[in-house]
Amino acid sequence: MRLFWVALQFLTRLPVRLSRFEPAWLNDCVRHFPLVGALVGAVGAAVLIGAAQCWPAWVAAVLALTATVMLTGGFHEDGLADTFDALGGVVTRDKALTIMKDSRIGSYGALAMGLSLLLRATLLAVLAARPLAGAAVAVVISHAWARAAAVGVMVTLPYGGDIDHAKAKPLALAVAPRNFVIALGWCGLLAAAAWAWGVPAVRLLLAAGAAAVAAMCMRHWLQRRVGGYTGDGLGATEQLAEIAVLLAFTAAL
């Protein structure tokens, strides 16, 4: 539970208070990132279902997306924008890392964030027009599995930035593979619950595959351009994996 509270404090704006803190906890709390994602997704799903009772699907979708962005403080969206600003152009590794640290947003970052928000809002609107129970499951799973994808990138790559200037230094150290195994365990439990709820197994397998492909593509891109992961790169991984999972759930099969 202690590691879960650390993960919740790190990934959201919820006012979590800890009596003490050990840097190693931040390294190990990544095992619970999917659980925090499920919580964020549950808030988004609740808003989507509630709003769909009063407004058209696209309004409910924007409100649900707004709720999740507010809950996380745009944490992952910021990483997406910084990553695409840094890696969208042809620059050296050192220049790319410098761009990532720049708080200003450029054309690549603005395009990436705008298209991401537009695509997620559209996909949520598609879900809101369908049976709402299935839509809620899709939203929860998309947030949980997307954060597991980021953990997978973290475990399989070294840190690619300057460790001494890392904002969350413990996460710049080696993350034990057991943390990824536990994260996958949370994903498995969510998949089992969704299957019991009536979601077809083929849909869940397609969504899991989509998240894995997004993670592998981001892993390859980060390794090739900066030699490892960065915090911003993990945020971009979460965003792209979230989109991939939503695409899998809305695809016509």
From TrEMBL:
Membrane topology field: Multi-pass membrane protein
Coiled coil spans: none
Reaction(s) catalysed (UniProt annotation): alpha-ribazole 5'-phosphate + adenosylcob(III)inamide-GDP = adenosylcob(III)alamin 5'-phosphate + GMP + H(+); alpha-ribazole + adenosylcob(III)inamide-GDP = adenosylcob(III)alamin + GMP + H(+)
Origin superkingdom: Bacteria
Transmembrane segments: 35-65, 105-129, 135-159, 204-222
Pathway(s) per entry: Cofactor biosynthesis; adenosylcobalamin biosynthesis; adenosylcobalamin from cob(II)yrinate a,c-diamide: step 7/7
Pfam families on file: CobS (PF02654)
Cofactor(s), names only, from the UniProt record: Mg(2+)
Keyword Ribosomal protein: no
Compartment(s) of residence: Cell membrane
This protein's UniProt keywords: Cell membrane, Cobalamin biosynthesis, Magnesium, Membrane, Transferase, Transmembrane, Transmembrane helix
GO molecular function annotation: adenosylcobinamide-GDP ribazoletransferase activity
EC code: 2.7.8.26
Location, primary (coarse class): membrane
Family: Belongs to the CobS family.
Known function: Joins adenosylcobinamide-GDP and alpha-ribazole to generate adenosylcobalamin (Ado-cobalamin). Also synthesizes adenosylcobalamin 5'-phosphate from adenosylcobinamide-GDP and alpha-ribazole 5'-phosphate.
Protein name in the entry: Adenosylcobinamide-GDP ribazoletransferase
